[in-house]
Amino acid sequence: MAYKHLLRHLSLSCLAVVGLIIPPAVSQTFKWPDGKKMAISLTFDDARGSQATAGIPLLNEYGIKGTFYLVPSAVRKQLEGWQKAVASGHEMGNHSLHHPCSGNFVWSREKALETYTLDQMRSELTETNRQIQAMLGVMPVSYAYPCGHTFVGRGRGTQSFIPLISELFMTGRGWLDEAPVDPAYCDFAQLTGMETDGKDFEQILPIIEAARKSGQWLVLAGHEMADSGPQTTRLAMLRKLCEYAKDPNNGIWIAPVNEIAGYVKAVRDTINIPEMVVTDAKGILHLTAEKGKGTGPQIQYMPKWKAFGWFGAADAVEWEIEVPRAGVYEVRMEWSVDDKEAGKAFVLETGKVSLSGKVPRSGGWENFQSKSVGTLRLATGVQKIKFRPGQAFASGALLDLRQIVLSPGH
Ligand SMILES: [Zn+2]
């Protein structure tokens, strides 16, 4: 099985110290390009005046490209400056048409999110994209939530517009968040944004160092780019930050949001992210390899096959499932196995119930088949379900498992 050389899924371990659980910082499966240890995106909002006149020329000195979340009316005031910014390779994002925030900000009372609808939000976001493209010739794929607010309406009528951002854009960035983005886990429509305004480099450095330790993506966010002032990312700080980020010894990949998001998405397609399995419209549970958690010394998720490759007797795969109705479920397995490895025992177990069987022949490792292998009585609620070898074996493999499908009986 020489083709199974792709990313290895390493299990995470938790450390319990005096009653405190310290979670693992980041999935061990995520790798940055060229041996980099972390990523940074410099982002700035509102198309403030100082960005085009002072901030962008400074970034250009270092050959560093930022992401600028624009409000079209502000771009219009400095059109030439923003056209130059596009020509120098900076990313232009969408920051809405009228910058609506909660009406708790008095300046936003006339355009309060509490009075918005999703339809209105959709049409304004689309119009913003249209205006930016007309002025600058680029179509935004990145969005930043004004004030970091993600809702429309109020009380029981409140709705999130995160799904809309997820539909219209590659990413959505928040504001005043307290942690960097975990590339292996993040929801692209909710990238965290950490503030650079009013900070010295010495205050940013510990955040960078912590993010590097756990291989995270730090999306920094600011407003004005000047020597001093309110809501201002100071140029002196920015200079130090650029120098630090450019030093190859620091292992930093600094690039616009769309560039890093594109890389993260591509890598994410090749690793599996354990996720709770819920029923589809027909009440069926699809326990795909992509949603399972592999444990054991040799198990590997193989993106090319969307399956777990099964090597040793100590390997297993576990899913978290939510069963809405207790009852007997038909168990269907989608697998492949070399003829000479077929026939070993497997066990599927949850709580006190289990199903045992022998892995049938599929006609070779590259030939996946789907077959009913029995039934299992499931209890209602969230539970773990595990698939493992049912016998010890010293060499060879059990099977490659793509998914287990649990269908409710009649
Ligand atoms: Zn803003």
From TrEMBL:
Residues of the NodB homology domain: 38-255
Signal sequence annotation: none
Name assigned to this protein: Peptidoglycan/xylan/chitin deacetylase (PgdA/CDA1 family)
Organism: Dyadobacter fermentans
